[in-house]
Specification:
CATH topology of the largest domain: Topoisomerase I, Chain A, domain 4
Number of helices: 4
Number of strands: 6
Distance between the termini: 49 Å
CATH architecture of the largest domain: Orthogonal Bundle
Largest sheet: 4 strands, antiparallel
Strand content: 5-15%
Oligomer: single chain
Radius of gyration: 22 Å
Structural class: alpha+beta
Strand order of the largest sheet: 3-4-6-5
CATH superfamily of the largest domain: Ribosome-recycling factor
Length: 184
């Protein structure tokens, strides 16, 4: 019984981490290297994440800097950022790229908040699915006569408490990200 609850908690924690990871890629008006995480560049025939081809740094709140380890890849990285269609227009000085982060307009902010809410809802669904799986597992154990009715009820209550806790965490994360996005 404890193993099922421990497994459910672990899976729910992973669901929260996945949400945080997805939200870190969403612009909030501040420069962060996570904004370029999803972009891959053709590096000697392999599609490689940008952060594995050079150094990405935050110069200030509205500018990123990219310094390639191999200067010959600079144009490919420039092109990959433009083709990613995320609204960034890199400026090359021949050895580095400066990537200005344009301010978000009101309409774009609202679109991003909708996207954040969608990620949050997906995360809540994942947590609820984990709850369902855990409860089904507990019921199977009870049918095998390994759990009494009282133990089953207590275990289901623990799983529900875990679920409520994780749903509240998702809501808190969403509130924080939404506030961050809408901040001008």
């Amino acid at each position: 019984m404890e193993q099922v609850i421990k497994d459910a908690k672990s899976r729910m924690d992973k669901s929260l981490e996945a949400l945080r990871s997805e939200l870190s890629k969403i612009r909030s008006g501040k420069a962060t290297t996570a904004l370029l995480d999803g972009i891959k560049v053709d590096y000697y025939g392999n599609m490689t994440p940008i952060n594995q081809t050079g150094n990405l740094t935050v110069l200030d709140a509205h500018t990123l800097s990219y310094t390639p380890w191999d200067k010959s890849i600079l144009n490919a990285v420039d092109k990959a950022i433009l083709e990613a269609n995320i609204g960034f227009n890199p400026i090359s000085d021949g050895t580095n790229l400066k990537i200005p982060i344009p301010p978000l307009n009101e309409e774009r902010r609202k679109e991003l908040v909708k996207l954040v809410k969608k990620f949050g809802e997906d995360s809540k669904v994942a947590v609820r699915n984990i709850r369902r799986d855990a409860n089904e597992h507990l019921k199977r154990e009870q049918k095998k006569k390994k759990l009494s009715e009282d133990d089953l009820k207590a275990a289901e209550d623990k799983v529900q408490k875990l679920t409520d806790e994780h749903i509240k965490n998702v809501d808190d994360i969403l509130k924080h990200k939404e506030k961050e996005i809408m901040e001008v």
